[in-house]
Amino acid sequence: MCKSYETKMAECIHPFVKFVSRKVNKIRWQQSQKQALECADTFVTGSWDDEDNKICLWYLGTQRSPQYDEGGGLEPTLKCEMTHSGDVTGLEFIEPDVIVASSSTGSVTMYKHHTASQTLGIQYKWQSLHRHGNHSCPCTCLAVRDKTIVTSGEDGRLVILNAEQKSPHRIIENADSSTINNIVFLKHTEVITVNSSGQLKTFDLRSNSDAPSQTLSVSGELTSLHCVDKHPGQPHIVATGSHDGVLGIWDLRQEASPVSLLEAHNGPMWEVKFHKTNSNHLFTCSEDGAVWHWDASLVGSSHMVQTQFTGAGSGGANFSLNPSFQFGGSENVNKWLCSDNKKMEINSLIDDNILPVNSVDIESQTLICGTDSESLITIRLPTLR
């Protein structure tokens, strides 16, 4: 693999930086109302590395910022906040007014947003879900689907919770011998995890067995995988980010290895996110302070098994394919599984940022980022549909 990218800043409204006086470890858009035609305008953040960490709810409305002649709406306004015990390690909306957060203390807390008073209150807290022996250890991540919450931790356990029950629904004690770093739902009763040994594992929550239904890894590699996200329309396609900054694209129908590996960031990749409604777009953030927008819109199919491609990004990247992977006709192949990636565009969305970007989320044309520079970054992408 050899690097072949040139630096290019994306065509977007200049990022708006909001200083919030605390390091932001997780950031998530509110769930859109099922019947609503408009996009969400509210998001939540969780901080870390502070004596008193915070869960904060923000509104991103239509007010104009003096920084812009047009567009506006990029400056978040704080709605309400509440102290959180420990570092926020996972954060999701379970309903538009209900938020769940995992903690480095090993607990998970469910918060209720009281819209009338614009306050946050604790609805319930599950204590010491993750532990080594008699000592609590960090809950590293969580995933939400309807009323089901699945948490993972440094102890390699999976804990399945129901938002309406005080006791865990199920505990998979020996899901992994390594730290589980991230988890997402693939289907209603199936999750995928990534661990510190560089493995992906899928678990069927209906199975009586604690063993994973599938285990995949990069051949010969033990590099930690930090993040994973599924393709919104084809859940057998997942993207991962590793400690060495590599973006992996996987087809869970194939055996063992990734379809492609993209050597991207110059530091650990902390999050990867597909666009929820336009799956040709993907976003990554990293310890190196960069946020990249990967655009596969123009990618076509090919029968080549290895290629280099030139895109746009703030560093070097290269592309390789699993030689055993077979492609069908172009009309049947998802763009992320195609080998002809010479038309892939990779844009750097933040310029001259030094400190890590820990978390990103995308809603419609607006990307939000949480950073170690004690700031929120909001970016409008006008060309994104």
pLDDT average, as an integer? 85
Q: Classify the beta-strand content into a percent band.
A: over 45%
**Percent helix range:** under 10%
Radius of gyration: 20 Å
Helix run count: 0
The total beta strand count reads 31
Question: Main sheet?
Answer: 5 strands, antiparallel
Strand order of the largest sheet: 20-21-22-23-27
Looking at the structure, what is the overall shape? globular
Low-confidence stretches: 1-7, 63-71, 301-316, 319-331
Structural class: mainly beta
Give the distance, in angstroms, between the N- and C-terminal Cα atoms: 32 Å
Describe this structure in words.
- The protein is mainly beta and 385 residues long.
- The protein has no helices and 31 strands.
- The chain has strands spanning 16-19, 24-29, 42-47, 53-59, 77-84, 88-95, 98-103, 108-114, 119-126, 131-132, 135-136, 139-145, 148-153, 158-162, 170-172, 180-187, 190-195, 199-204, 214-217, 225-230, 237-242, 246-251, 260-263, 269-274, 281-286, 291-295, 319-321, 345-348, 357-363, 366-371, 375-380.
- A 5-stranded antiparallel sheet has the order 20-21-22-23-27, with no helix packed on it. It has a 4-stranded antiparallel sheet with strand order 1-31-30-29, with no helix packed on it. A 4-stranded antiparallel sheet has the order 2-3-4-5, with no helix packed on it.
- 48% of the residues are buried.
